[in-house]
Amino acid sequence: MASILLTGSSKGIGMATALVLGRAGHTVFATMRNPDAAPELAQIAAEEGLPIEVLAMDVNSDASVSEAFKAIAESQRPIDVLVNNAGIESRGSIEELSLSVFRDVMETNYFGVIRCVQAVLPQMRSRRSGCIVNVSSVAGRISSSPLGPYTASKFALEALSEALAQEAKMFNVRVAVVQPGIIDTDMARRLGDETNGSRYPHASRMAGLFAATLKNPASPDFVAEKIRHVIESGTWQLRHPVGPDAEPFLQWRSGMTDEQWIDWGAADDDTWYESVERDFGLDARSTE
């Protein structure tokens, strides 16, 4: 059984992953910014007697990451697997969002991963053993408005992961990227809420797409089981799309030229909604 450090475990995909891995017998160091504000995981672990230890760690803070890794090292348990799951989202047009929004998203979704990788990789490299799983998104391969800040951070994470995989493989350390589609999480539910006041129609369109998809929701357990498979199988495959809509979205985008993709995003509302209904059977006009 592996010793696993997991970030962003307070809810959603992170909590589901902690429970799936703990129930499989792995030792899980489940980290989150404020454990006192999110006690559910610790309560479930205690009730079921799972090998899950909840720790405070803010991936945006050098000091917090250093302290958490030091605490784990003092427990005499080397970290076999790092799962970088912590992430935030933001939506809006490039013109209308403040620069601080872009910085905040990149700080968590990209620099937070680097902090954790740099903390754990030396010991993995010296042991010539380990696995790093970066939770990206279909949005790490498909960029669409109004998710510019989020997709930029996930594109950056995908590029980082490719480079890291080349470096780490020389020392027998595996790197994998898990790419969820639209999964039933608080983040996805927020993206399914209508927004008003933008000069651009894309936020309303995306809200409709998410809301329509979430009428048949995909559980975070889909992603948790994929992460478990990556860890336990020993696979060297880099990218792992997960969720019922992930592969269809990726294949749909790959069938277009860049110019066709831009034209799709820039189409008038009627054309855009009709294409979503035609290609995916989703009525994105209604978010009720």
Report what the structure shows.
- This protein has helices at residues 12-23, 40-48, 62-74, 99-127, 148-169, 186-191, 202-213, 220-233, 246-254, 258-265, 269-280; strands at residues 3-6, 27-32, 52-56, 81-84, 130-135, 173-180, 239-242.
- The chain has 288 residues and is of the alpha/beta class.
- The chain has one domain (3-185, 219-254): Rossmann fold, CATH 3.40.50.
- It has a seven-stranded parallel sheet with strand order 3-2-1-4-5-6-7, sandwiched between helices.
- The mean pLDDT is 95.
CATH class reads Alpha Beta
Largest sheet, in brief, is: 7 strands, parallel
| Annotation, overall tally of beta strands | 7
In percent, how helical is the residue content? 40-55%
- Beta-strand content: 5-15%
Spatial strand arrangement across the major sheet? 3-2-1-4-5-6-7
Number of domains: 1
Please identify which CATH superfamily we are dealing with.
NAD(P)-binding Rossmann-like Domain
Shape: globular
Query: From the helix content, strand content and strand pairing, which structural class follows?
Result: alpha/beta
User: Compute the gyration radius: what is it?
Assistant: 19 Å
Summarize model confidence as the mean pLDDT. Answer: 95
Order of helices and strands: EHEHEHEHEHEHHHEHHH
CATH architecture: 3-Layer(aba) Sandwich
CATH topology: Rossmann fold
* Uncertain parts: none
Please count the helical segments: 11
